[in-house]
Specification:
Blueprint lengths: L1 E3 L12 H10 L6 E5 L10 E5 L2 E5 L6 H4 L7 E4 L8 H4 L3 E6 L11 H13 L2 E4 L2 H7 L6 E3 L6 H4 L9 H7 L4 E6 L8 H10 L3 E6 L6 H5 L7 E4 L7 H5 L4 E4 L13 H8 L4 E4 L10 E4 L2 H13 L4 H13 L2 H13 L3 H5 L1 H9 L2
Parallel strand pairs: 1-2, 1-5, 2-4, 5-6, 6-7, 7-8, 9-10, 9-12, 10-11, 12-13, 13-14
Antiparallel strand pairs: 3-4
Helix pairs in contact: 1-14, 8-12, 11-13
């Protein structure tokens, strides 16, 4: 059994790594997954409800009662990424702990000394630390009991059907007035390169720049990007609708500035773009440089040049095969296999001592 303490509401429009991992784990044989929710805004669960064959959404208020209710589980694993969730360990009493180190700590709301303390604690005491970027892995390795590099991934089965999806009407209607559409979906925040998009949109008035997602930190309206006639912003959409917007993209982009945060970012959308077989253009983020199917740009001039090349070759069978191949190598099923294999490599005699070690560590 694998338990996820509460982080993101399950039904949050930004469907991210915790939800994807939970679903992928639940598809493993003989594996039950409990995804705890604090019912922050998008979930409304009184006790528990099934959201998959072996996947349950559970009210986090029941955490203390779960060990007594689930005594038949051969092993209980807690997987957590939010450092403050270490407080759930004495309630859940797991056999083993996976700590997901998914971003620079500074990106999280409420970043403070306590978060740094909890982070160090989890590195020292978790059975396995999973790092989604090489930079995070290099930071974790000297401190963690055991660390692996395991970047984000994509739901290939879901996004590979984009070509059979009906285009989102609000996006398709706008795109019909332009020669091509360069699209992005996800959070719009301080790490999004608004100046580059503004300059590119002004240089190519016949291209539509379609931005779908949340104004994460209030930077969107202040950026000036929405004043351009060939930039269309559509507020965040349910995960189930993303393929209908991706269908409209002629080119999929990730125009992030390069800074300490983005150098440690593994974009989930990268692998979804691959599965949809859309040409991909990204800034030179380290985690995007690892894939042959991804074109990288250095500045606005280079962005425009690379975009024109990709648009000319977007139907090329060899390029689409490359996208498809890299998408299939980077699925959530593959990632969870890697993680469970690494966890299984913990010596059994060491794993047997884990509950005592965790109990002792919690008291520190």
């Amino acid at each position: 059994m694998i338990i996820f303490p509460p982080t993101l509401d399950w039904h949050l429009p930004l469907y991210q790594r915790p939800q994807q991992l939970a679903r992928a784990y639940s598809e493993k044989e003989n594996t039950l997954v409990l995804y705890l929710t604090a019912n922050s805004a998008h979930d409304h669960v009184l006790s528990a409800e099934a959201i998959g064959e072996r996947l349950y959404l559970v009210n986090a208020a029941l955490a203390r009662e779960l060990p007594a209710l689930l005594t038949e589980a051969a092993e209980t694993v807690v997987s957590l990424s939010w450092t403050a969730n270490r407080r759930y360990l004495p309630l859940l009493r797991p056999d083993r702990v996976i700590y997901e180190y998914i971003d620079e700590l500074e990106i999280f709301d409420g970043y403070d000394r306590a978060m740094r303390r909890d982070h160090r604690y989890l590195l020292r005491h978790a059975d396995l630390t999973v790092c989604t970027a090489r930079t995070l892995y290099e930071k974790a390795r000297p401190l963690a009991r055991r660390a692996i590099y395991s970047p984000n991934a994509g739901d290939y089965a879901f996004f590979s059907k984009v070509s059979d999806t009906t285009p989102a009407e609000e996006a398709a209607h706008a795109a019909a007035r332009y020669s091509c559409t360069l699209g992005y979906y996800g959070a719009l925040a301080g790490w999004f390169d608004y100046p580059l998009v503004i300059e590119a949109a002004r240089s190519r008035p016949d291209w539509l720049f379609l931005l779908v997602g949340m104004d994460y930190d209030g930077t969107l309206p202040a950026s000036g990007v929405l004043s351009l006639p060939n930039v269309l912003w559509i507020p965040p959409q349910p995960y189930e609708r993303l393929p209908s917007f991706l269908r409209v993209f002629d080119l999929a982009m990730i125009p992030f500035v390069l800074n300490e945060i983005t150098r440690s970012t593994s974009p989930v959308k990268l692998f979804e773009y691959m599965a949809a077989e859309k040409p991909i253009l990204c800034s030179r983020m380290p985690e995007c440089r690892r894939y042959r199917s991804v074109a990288l740009y250095a500045d606005t001039k280079d962005f425009l040049r690379k975009a024109e090349i990709l648009l000319r070759h977007r139907g090329d069978p060899a390029y689409r095969a490359l996208l498809r191949g890299e998408a299939l190598e980077n699925t959530w099923a593959a990632r969870t296999d890697e993680i469970l294999s690494a966890l299984d490599s913990v010596p059994r005699e060491e794993a047997a001592r884990a509950p005592l070690r965790i109990k002792k560590a919690i008291s520190e």
